[in-house]
Specification:
Layout lengths: L4 H6 L2 H18 L15 H9 L12 H12 L17 E5 L9 H5 L5 E2 L7 E2 L19 E5 L12 H42 L5 H27 L36
Antiparallel strand pairs: 1-4, 2-3
Helix pairs in contact: 2-3, 6-7
Bound molecules: iron/sulfur cluster (SF4) (3 copies).
The site of one iron/sulfur cluster (SF4) has 15 residues, from helix 5.
């Protein structure tokens, strides 16, 4: 659950108990989900869907990877009657694994950026490969591929839903998803720190420069003001992005949490990501 700092500060003991009860319920519901993080339920992953169900804001029939068995488990936890899978979120199907046609891959890395569990290995301008044991079949890598060289290959025969997936696989997928989120936060923080150091160095260099005319002095002052403003914006962004809890630090769940700006000349972030 997320709450603003003001909400947290003003929460009554009853509110806090309610939040804790909802969190505990979301934990139990999340533990029943397949953890493919496919977003087919309409949420940015399994945890946000679990939280919506815990709050009574979403029905238990939105998860195609869990299928009918998953719905039955969720309904039992929620104390409601199972519903048929909502077809607007997909159909229950045999599980698939992504396969890349390496003869066509141009090494753009877009699939790596889309994969929620770091199941794709590759580097910029090199061919990419899926690690089949880590692939959850979420198919999130398919749409971004500009040369359409990723195919989803069914691997479980007639078996679907939880018949085609196991709790250890779900646990591994969740663990890899959380590791990836931590890595993204760490990379963002490292990038921000590097940009902040670069901006501070530029500012210091400007301060050391002697102006040979009034016009040059004014130009230097303008540059210093621009850099100082960029440093301050970055500081405020970092302050606003301070996580209230682990979920709030999630760059996937919080698309508004953009990297902080620093010096005017931003280097591009690393485009190479490898499973850890
Ligand atoms: S497996 Fe996919 S559809 Fe099911 S809860 Fe997780 S993200 Fe949603
Ligand atoms: S490789 Fe593709 S299908 Fe497999 S988990 Fe990653 S994004 Fe999903
Ligand atoms: S998105 Fe497609 S072309 Fe780009 S690296 Fe992945 S598989 Fe290769």
């Amino acid at each position: 659950m997320t709450a603003s700092a003001a909400d947290t500060a003003s929460a009554s003991p009853a509110d806090v108990r309610l939040d804790a009860a909802l969190d505990a319920r979301a934990d139990r519901l999340e533990a029943l989900l397949p953890q493919t993080q496919c977003t087919k339920c309409g949420f940015q992953g399994c945890r946000p869907y679990a939280e919506a169900m815990a709050r009574g804001e979403a029905d238990c029939n939105r998860c195609p990877p869990g299928g009918a068995e998953g719905i039955r488990r969720l309904a039992a936890e929620l104390g409601v009657a199972p519903l048929p899978l909502d077809p607007t979120h997909g159909t229950e199907q045999p599980r698939a694994v992504a396969r890349i046609d390496e003869t066509l891959c141009i090494g753009c890395t877009l699939c790596i950026q889309a994969c929620p569990v770091d199941a794709i290995v590759g580097a910029a301008k090199q061919m990419h490969t899926v690690l089949p044991d880590w692939c959850t079949g979420c198919d999130l890598c398919v749409a971004p591929c500009p040369v359409d060289c990723i195919a989803m290959i069914p691997v479980t025969g007639e078996r679907t839903g939880w018949d085609a997936w196991s709790q250890p696989q779900a646990d591994q997928a969740r663990s890899r998803y959380l590791s990836r989120k931590q890595r993204l936060v760490r990379e963002r923080e490292e990038n921000e720190a590097r940009l902040a150091a670069k901006a501070a160095a530029k500012l210091e260099a400007l301060r050391q420069e002697a102006a040979s005319s009034e016009a040059e002095r004014q130009a230097q002052e303008r540059k210093k003001a621009i850099i100082q403003a960029a440093i301050e914006r970055a500081r405020l962004k970092r302050q606003a992005a301070q996580p209230l809890n682990a979920a709030a630090a999630d760059p996937v769940d919080r698309p508004d949490a953009a990297p902080a700006a620093a010096a005017p000349d931003h280097p591009a972030p690393s485009d190479t990501k490898r499973p850890q």
